[in-house]
Amino acid sequence: MAVEDVKIRLEELTTLLNDYAYHYYVLDNPKVPDAEYDRLLRELRTLEEANPELKQADSPTERVGGEPLDSFKKVQHDVPMLSLSNAFNETELRDFARRAQQGLGYEPSYICELKIDGLAVNLKYENGLFVQGATRGDGTTGEDITSNLKTIPSIPLKLKENVTIDVRGEAFMPKKSFNRLNEAKEKNGEALFANPRNAAAGSLRQLDPKIAAKRNLDIFIYSVGKVENNELDSHHEALSYVKELGFKTNKETQYCETIEDVIAYCDSWLDKRTELDYDIDGIVIKVDRISDQQKLGFTAKSPRWATAFKFPAEEVVTTLEDIELSV
Ligand SMILES: CC(C)(C)c1nc(N2CCN(c3ncccn3)CC2)c2cc(C(N)=O)c(N)nc2n1
Fold it and tell me: Could you report the predicted ipTM of this complex, rounded to two decimals?
């Protein structure tokens, strides 16, 4: 095949495979059978091996992970990743709402999001390309784990629009992947992970991307950091915007007109969370209108316009021999 034809076929395959992966991993709605995806991926890998200079930045072959790093670089977040205040019962939720109402002079509307129990990360895109991913760290400085995050199929390597944007999300390990991983570790006599959060953090904070690539990690995006598009007047518009760009957002997110609706939503998930295929440790409640968030502002370390309703820790009966230090 002439080089020009190789370039066209290679770009065609990259676009096609990325669209199939988007439907499979982001929309949870496969477009083609796995065998078809694998056949096209083999064709792409063959063409890239013969023409390495033609490999696209957003090639799906980037997902297998490159060489191990010696260490992680430090990253300063352009916009600090703040903490969240907590509310442990209905009274504290009502206190949160009353403080917001006092600050605004009216009762605001809210967005409720499942509080995914994973590892908070920042994803940086320049002109639509994924250029850097980092852990939250202490909120100001995190670790550059770009090579590990590239292996997560639901993290787009190229956005549907060529925008420059930072988004935040929670990377996590689904319960099924966690149980499979610990079964394999048990067979090899290795130390087990105590829970999916530790397994996700452990997978993303080790230096070999090929290990991260095998851990079936996933992510839900829940906020924007630095963003060019300043037409976003509400949090729910920000979530729709990142979804249009190709990010994975959580379908259980709910708009709530009043704190009564918020309380009903929190109550509804207390027992229902066992049906989810990922761990949550509560509900994050955010005042929806951006202008309301700006009026309420921040305390030293967390927004006044958001809080986390925390579920009671699940009663886990752990017999002594099950308690092993997890790596
Ligand atoms: C943007 C704000 C600050 C309101 C915000 N902050 C969050 N977090 C802050 C504290 N974080 C943290 N992590 C480690 C140590 C201390 N704080 C972990 C992320 C959110 C976490 C989730 C989630 N888990 O599903 C979510 N749906 N929305 C969030 N929204």
Answer: 0.98
